[in-house]
């Protein structure tokens, strides 16, 4: 009996990503890079707002940061399948580091041109757009297959913790430090992330080398894979809907905080913090690899619950209950995204991993489009009706997709 328990314990440890030093270095580097990015993002947004007193220019800066995700993640995926993924990440991070260093120096010199600033942020966004799919594709190369689910979940938790603490740290620092100094902290974070990546060595060498991979045929092979594997296409397609109609709920939160819940700017920040906390808890819980239901049910149910949570929130006028609902919204929204990534990572072959993930990661690029749509709806039909519409679209879409392809529920 003792031997059986020992074997079981060893097996469970092998399924946990945190028991592999390569992964721990990778996770530490990812956490540093993401936290530094939030410091950089908050500092630059604050700089633009104090410089122009215009929300439009802040939105323009955010657009320059996000639009490369739509345009450059696929070339990044090709690069990740063609060359060593760890080295590709390091090159993109060195590029982002140098861009940030120059940007901090330009602000320090007093150059206040929005055009210069937007150009630097666009270049910075291109480097990150190349990096995003490659970083995700590297995880299965530094972990054995049983630990991939755990690795993806803990990776997601690290990013969400950065999302929680990064803006708060930036706010505290901006109260006493200059903007160029806070921007320069991102340079230090990138340097630490690059140093951590240098400690990582692939546990499982890639089965195929992509040195001969060309961009055109590589894209064609990616399209063919989606055509031949309808379940992956279905997961990706369904996952886009909440990115457009769900995650843009943050656009309406200032209205709810001030006009519906009467909680002011502090209440607005706490609403988003509760959502991020829910996302972190889900990520950590799923990191142990024990799911109460099949992955298909968790994925589709998570999107439906996300939509339902937004609908319930729209009816809430009691602030503590609204905080609780935001916590649940963060939990279920993060849960479905992790399940989607896990299923796709377990399904796709390694020589296509970078390209397929680059397409999947494009879903974040739909959030700005959702922000425009939700902003328009908020102006025309009101914030409450807009939020109910968004949640309803998410719920109805899930049921329609299940009716058309019930195989999605059978995913294990």
Automatic annotation (TrEMBL):
PROSITE patterns for this protein: MFS
CDD domains, A to Z: MFS_MefA_like (cd06173)
Origin: domain of life: Bacteria
Membrane topology: Multi-pass membrane protein
Alphabetic keyword roster: Cell membrane, Membrane, Transmembrane, Transmembrane helix, Transport
InterPro entries: MFS_dom, MFS_trans_sf, TM_effector
Ranges that cross the membrane: 56-76, 88-108, 114-134, 177-200, 230-249, 269-289, 296-315, 321-339, 359-377, 383-403
Residue ranges of every copy of the Major facilitator superfamily (MFS) profile domain listed in the record: 1-409
Compartments in which it is found: Cell membrane
Pfam families: MFS_3
Protein name as catalogued: MFS transporter
Species whose genome carries this gene: Effusibacillus consociatus
